[in-house]
Every structure is written in C-alpha cells, then in structure tokens.
Amino acid sequence: MSKPSIDIDLVVREVLAELGAAPEENVGQVANLSHSPPPGPQSRGVDSHDGELVLTSRVVSIDELSGRLDSVRRVVVSRRAVVTPAVRDELLRRGIALEYVDPSDSRKEAVRLAMITLGTDFDPAPLAAALDREGFSVERSDSDCLIAAVDELAKETSRSDTLGVLLTPHTAAGLCLANRLPGVRAIGGFCAPEVARAAAAVGANLLVADPRAGSFFQLKQIVAEFARGGTRSCPAVFSERLA
For 20, which of 14, 56, 80, 189 is 20 to 30 Å away at the CA? Predict the structure, then answer.
C-alpha cells in the first residue's frame, strides 16, 4: 500500500497560524521543519534595488507569492521567518535568490493601524500581537455602531501615519459607508495579493474585512499586506473624486 502524500507547505502554514501568538521558542521549533538556516555570517542588510521583494511575514507560504514574482530577482525575508518548501521550490524554479536578514536590519514601515472590531466575537488581540511583531503599531477598540466606527476610522486615517482596519461581518455596508466620506478610500479583499493590488490602485487608507471569512493566517496576511504598503497617496487620475 502506498503511503499518503503530505502537503508539508500546508502543514507548516497551518501549525504556524495556530501559533500566531505563541512564544518565539515555539515558533523556532516549527521553523526547524522548514530547514531555516542557522544564524551565521551570511546575513546581510537589505537594499532597495528594483527586482527585490521584501517580505516581513513570519511564515512565507506559496500563497503570499502569488502574482508577485514577475521581474523579481531576489526575495528578502527575516532570519526568523519560516520559508515553506513549496516557496523554496518555486524560487529555485524561477532562478530567484532567497536572502535572509537579521530582524534589526530589515526595513519596517512606520505605520500606525487603527483597528476597530464590530458585530463579531472575534478576538483581535492575537492579530494585533502578530502585527506588532512585524513592526506595526496597532491601536484597537470595539464598537457597537457601524456608522460610528466608520466615522472614527475616517478621522483616524486623516493622520499622515495611520491606516484604518474595520473587522466586521458587515463588509458591504462598511465599504459603502466609508467610501461616502471625504478622504476615505476603503477596500476589501479575500487574499493578500488582491488587497495589495486594490490598495495600490486607489491609494487605499481603510481596509474592511470579515474576520471569520477565512483562517486566522489568511486574515493576518491580508491585514499585514495592507499595512506593509504604508500610507498611500490618492492616484492623480482619481484625485478629483477620491482625494
């Protein structure tokens, strides 16, 4: 009888998702499964040349790279990151270099996230903790009024260093309400690449997401990708209507 195949990429990803708020030593134990290199002299700083993709995620899965490797020559990750076997295979197939850097040397955007949870029993504390470990400052609160929550986030996103995140199952209503307010450019999305494209297209400053629509890992990837782009200006072509 043949042995069943095991999707190592999926196993590592799901285990790390469950350990999203776990101590660093537990994450390190799982990291050994993906053969992350030990600390050593090969660590180098990060440059900003074209063709470089910098990822700050603690778990780098194949889903995170979807649609993002065109024209990329080097992928840079933290030395503490878990890079799944599927990612390594894909980078090798494409001839893309994988580089590890020390966390103290990697770039982190000075982004503040104003996060409001509404209409759900989802606990945002582990999500906030995971984002904090990636270098983002999160200020979270709860609300029982969708209109008030949107108004508060509109005020927060008027700051030059702040992005807004609304976690609610009422995504359609949240998006409609937010995008009627001056200066607010709200988007939704179900995966990190989709959020990245939408955010860049309109210079988004508010993300509306249903925290129960997918796994914790997916939600964390979506919010982190949104935050990773930093505060964005409204594209000139839309400035008359959206700015």
Answer: 189
Are 86 and 161 part of one and the same domain?
A: no
Q: Is residue 96 part of a domain?
A: yes
Going residue by residue through the chain (243 aa), what tens digit of pLDDT does each one get? 554 445 555 555 555 554 443 333 333 333 333 344 433 333 333 333 457 888 877 788 888 888 889 888 888 888 778 889 899 999 988 889 888 776 554 444 468 999 999 999 999 999 999 888 878 899 999 999 999 999 999 999 999 899 999 999 999 999 999 999 999 999 998 888 889 889 989 999 999 999 999 899 899 989 988 998 888 888 888 888 887
Which regions of the chain does DSSP assign to beta strands (E)?
Answer: 52-55, 59-60, 74-78, 82-83, 97-101, 112-118, 137-143, 162-167, 186-187, 206-209
d(CA 83, CA 80): 9
Can you read off the two tokens belonging to residue 213? 């629509």
Give the structural domain span for 69.
8-101
Q: Residue type at 28?
A: G
Tokens of 11: 């196993």
